[in-house]
Design brief:
The complex is a heterodimer of chains A (about 160) and B (about 160). By secondary structure, chain A is α+β, with helices and mostly antiparallel strands. Chain A contains three helices and seven strands. Chain A has a seven-stranded antiparallel sheet with strand order 1-2-3-4-5-6-7, with helices on one face. The chains are: A alpha+beta (about 160), B mainly alpha (about 160).
Chain lengths: ~160, ~160
């Protein structure tokens, strides 16, 4: 990711979403909301979200995005984020960075899969990585994606 | 010298390959090569990671196509037709009323006030609120817009 200012980062986000739209992975109107927020001067950061409504994929899946962004000295920080990908039938995963009081069961960087608990430890991610992960697994290489899409899961934990 | 199976093959890109490479960058960054080139000359393309490659390709396109790249109408026309008609990005700020409405939606969904949620979240007891990151961020946004200290989480 190349961005030396918050303005650059916002352009980067727009470019990413536009790229996936033109590839035909995202569809329809894509809302992007930018606001200044608490504790971050407007010129260096703010909140970026596409959550209500979320980003929509060509097959009806959705991606809810919220990032708190701060860019200082050319360094991009995302002190809090959520990327919630959900398929039409309810399968979901959600990568998050969130404050925690229980670092054992809720690491600061975590991912939820299918259920809200547990919080599995996860590497730091960003929108670019998330869109790649989603596209690589659900919208490309038909043979690979076919092994994932359409499978039913009936489970009790 | 030990022989191995590594070798370098050198050749010139064809016009079609250059065009395809330019289109890839145009899709990635949402602008025509002509628009990029104008920005690049003015030093306004820090956000384009591959600016050296893109500008070189654009100049190569001009040479291969026997055109001056400043009047590259054909490429511009082709780039314009790539835009998906049913896809567009809409940008805006959330208004104060929209933030309030979003908070109320979560309060109804989870049957608690934003203040109660915030207390639980601070104590690490909001595990079953799927949208906790969004809710707490909207709450901070609400309090910022309302000019309030948000330590107590009091909102709507």
């Amino acid at each position: 990711m190349t961005a030396t200012t918050y303005a650059d980062y916002k352009r980067h986000v727009r470019s990413l979403i536009t790229e996936y739209g033109r590839l035909g992975v995202l569809a329809g109107s894509t809302p992007l909301v930018f606001n200044t927020t608490k504790g971050i001067p407007a010129e260096i950061g703010g909140v970026i979200q596409a959550a209500d409504p979320p980003l929509r994929f060509k097959d009806g899946a959705k991606l809810e995005v919220l990032e708190i962004v701060r860019v200082t000295n050319g360094k991009i920080e995302l002190p809090r984020y959520t990327y919630h990908y959900e398929r039409p039938n309810g399968y979901f995963f959600r990568y998050e960075r969130e404050d925690s009081t229980d670092l054992i069961r809720k690491p600061e960087y975590h991912v939820h899969v299918i259920l809200d608990l547990p919080h599995f430890p996860a590497p730091p991610v960003n929108l670019e990585i998330i869109l790649q992960v989603i596209t690589n697994n659900f919208y490309s290489q038909e043979i690979y994606s076919r092994q994932i899409i359409g499978h039913e899961i009936h489970l009790t934990v | 010298m030990v022989e191995n199976d590594f070798y370098i093959e050198e050749r010139d890109m064809t016009l079609d390959e250059v065009k395809a490479a330019l289109k890839k960058y145009e899709r990635k960054y949402g602008m025509t090569s002509e628009e990029f080139y104008e920005k690049w000359k003015k030093g306004e393309t820090e956000f384009v990671s591959e600016s050296v490659d893109w500008s070189g390709l654009f100049e190569a396109y001009g040479v291969l196509n026997g055109q001056n790249h400043h009047s590259n109408e054909r490429l511009k026309e082709e780039a314009t037709t790539m835009v998906e008609p049913d896809f567009y990005v809409e940008e805006r700020e959330m208004t104060f009323d929209e933030v309030k409405a979003a908070l109320k939606k979560y309060e109804r969904k989870y049957g608690m006030t934003s203040e109660t949620f915030y207390d639980k979240w601070k104590r690490g007891e909001a595990y079953l609120v799927s949208e906790s990151v969004i809710w707490v961020s909207l709450l901070e946004l609400y309090q910022f817009m309302n000019g309030k200290d948000c330590e107590n989480g009091k909102a709507v």
